[in-house]
Structures are given as C-alpha cells and as structure tokens.
Amino acid sequence: MAEQHEEAADRFADGTEISEQELAHRKEFLELGEEDVARLTAINDLARRYADAVIEDFYRHLLSFEDTRSFFGDPQVLQRVKNMQKEYFLRLTQGNYDLAYVEDRLKIGAAHERIRLPIKSYLGMYNFYLRAVAARLVDAFKKTPDEAWSTFLSLMKLTFLDIGFAIDTYINASERTIRAQQEAIQELPTPVLPVREGMLLVPIIGIIDSLRARQLTEQLLGSIRSNRARMVVIDITGVQSVDSRVANHIVQTVEAARLMGARVIIAGISPEVAQTMVTLGIDLGRIMTVGDLQSGIERAEQLLGYVVTRSRSGETATG
Amino acid sequence: MRASILKQGSVLIASVQGSMTDADLAQMRDELVLDVRRHRSTGVIVDVTMLEVMDSFAARTLRGITQMIKLLGATSIVVGIQPEVAFSMVQLGLTLEGTNTALDLEEGLALLKGPRIDHHER
Hints:
CATH superfamily of chain B: STAS domain
Distance between the termini of chain A: 78 Å
Number of domains of chain A: 2
Strand content of chain B: 15-25%
Oligomer: heterodimer
Largest sheet of chain B: 5 strands, mixed
Number of strands of chain A: 7
Order of helices and strands of chain A: HEEHHHHHHHHEEHEHEHEH
Strand order of the largest sheet of chain B: 1-2-3-4-5
Shape of chain A: elongated
Largest interface: A-B, 22 and 21 residues
Radius of gyration of chain A: 32 Å
C-alpha cells in the first residue's frame, strides 16, 4: 500500500509532492470536468489572437504600481517572465491538464517566489488576467453570451486550480526556510565554558535530541580532562522541554562525568519542568539539581571550597 | 602480565596495563588485598589510564576491589577513566556505582589527603 503511494507521487524540483490522486481530488473539488476542458480548448485560437495584447496590458498594469514595478526592474527578468507568462496563458486553453501541466505551474510559481514577489501581487495577476479575458470573451461570443459565461466559469475553475498550486509553492518555500533555520540552530555547538579553576559551565539552549546529547557528552568529557574539572554545572534554563528521553541523556552524561571524577549540578529547572518531571515520574536519582543558574554556580563554588566575598570598594571608576 | 603495584607512603597505587586479561585483573585484585593488609595502607588508587576498554568483567572486578578494600578499612579510588571509555561504559550501563573516582593520579592523591570522602557519592 505504501509502495503504491510512493509510485503515484511525483516529486517536483522544489520538493512539492503531487500525486495523481491529489490532482484528481482537487479537480473534483473545483468541479472541473471534461466539459470544462472542452470549452477551454475551444477558445484556444481566440487565446492565441489576444495573448500578446493581454500580456502587454498585464505588465503595463504591474509596472504602474510602485510595489510591483520593483520586481521587474531588470529588463532580462521582465522579458523572461513575460515569455513564461505568455506560454502560461496559452497553455490554459490547450487541454490535457495533467501532472506535467501541474509541474509547469509549480515552476512558474517558484520563479515568482524566488524573486520574492509577494503572494498578494501574484494572486492580483490572476485577477487581472481573468478580467482581461472576460472582456474578450464577451466580445467574441456576442451572439451566444451564455457560452461566454460558461467558458468564463470553466476558465475560472482552471485558474483556481493553478492558484492552489501557486500557493503551495509559496508555502513550501517558507517551510524550507524554516527547516533550514531549525537545522542551523541545531548545529550550533553547545559551549563548554571554564568559569573557575576546576569548574565548567555548560549552557544548553533548545532541543536535546540523541545526536546533540551525544555530541555534548563527548565534548564535556574531553573538557573535563583538559580543564581538570571537578565540578560541572549544566544549565538547562534554555531547554524547551524535559521528557524521559532527555532525562535519560542527562543521567548518562552525569554518570560519565562522574567516572572521570567530576560532579555535576543540573541548574535551571523551572517550575514547569519540575511539574512535568514529577508528572512523568522522571527521577534523576541522586543527581544534584537547583532551580536557577546562580544557585548552581554558588553551590559548585561551595563544593570546590571557594569562598566568595564582596570587598567594600568594589570596582573603581575608570578615568 | 603482572599488575604494577607501587607504594607511596600509606597509599598503594595499582596501575592497570592496557593488555591485562581477566585473569590478570583478578590476580591484581587478590594481590592488592594482601598488600593493603601487609602494609596497613589507608588508601588505594587503581589507575586505569591505560585501559582502552572497560567491559563488564573489568567493571565487576573494580567494584570487587573497592568493596574488599573498604572492608579492610581503607579507601579506594579509581582514576584515569578516559572520555571514550567513560562514554561507552554509561552506554553499557556500567556506572561503577559506589566507587570513588577521580580524573587522574594527581587528583586521586589529593582526594586521599583531603577531607573525608563520601563513599556513597554519585
């Protein structure tokens, strides 16, 4: 069953996955059927005749607005999109609205997304086109206005199918960016910082997954050796959630550190995390934990035998 | 291969060689116990710096050493577990619970000379 699904889906260059079933479903939802296809192919000749004029009007409209003009400043870009747009318009009346047709739509959507054209402008373009064609249909079907209207409705169904795909392109691009950013955040290494002789601080931010936990542990153990650390404060203030898996990672890290002679204090347990841990029945055993980083550092200093006092004069002003 | 056991004042230092077999380790354990008794040592440091792999037998043997020496009234500390070894040990669930640990020989000696060590420290 899973194999069938994989064969049917077509993965396009930008990562969108549209299957035959999905396309059929969308057509069904828009009530786009064979009759519509017939009406559209019937006006293909008409479309050829008005294509250039519509395109010119179209881009004249775009260039007359400051916010859309800026996207077509480069004459090469402008010519390229004009050509693509003409092909697109003609394709609307050539029938055969299959997966290959969809792929083209996605490509055009992607091209506009890439130059950062806002989706509102992109949708505005469809609006312009439909109105331009409506006018010409009324003109061409003067004797049979019903047919103009039916043809227009068919065209509207098809353009809405296209708009759906165009929006998908924009959304996919956004999702890709978000994913890339998330990966970048994940890849930021957690620093292991010596804060006193014999004391290391490990501030963890974000999500702890198995890979990160492993990297962190390896790094920490290496630092324990090179810094001859006897105390480690692991600060989890910035960790989003602590579940059993995360707790296990923490326990393993603490045990490994202990084998190298270092004691660990887990600092930064928020009230919410404390609640979650008790609710989930997570027990850190005899691992020392404290509520905030300050307490963690103070406790570690204490255990190392540091006595911190404040001198009366404090910092002298610089002249 | 014989384990090397050196005496430094009231402390015995046993260095585990990388190529020691299970039998060698067991023999080292037995010798240590006798030596502690003979020299009336108060502390034992088991240095496993050269040990590349800690398996469950080695871990059990180390715990055995700790327990026996404690019964004789002395304190033992395992030192020199390397990062890679520590990592694979916890993955295998070998935590040497109840055993004192320190980074290396220097730290181990400092620990023995210092304030009282809590045997139940985790």
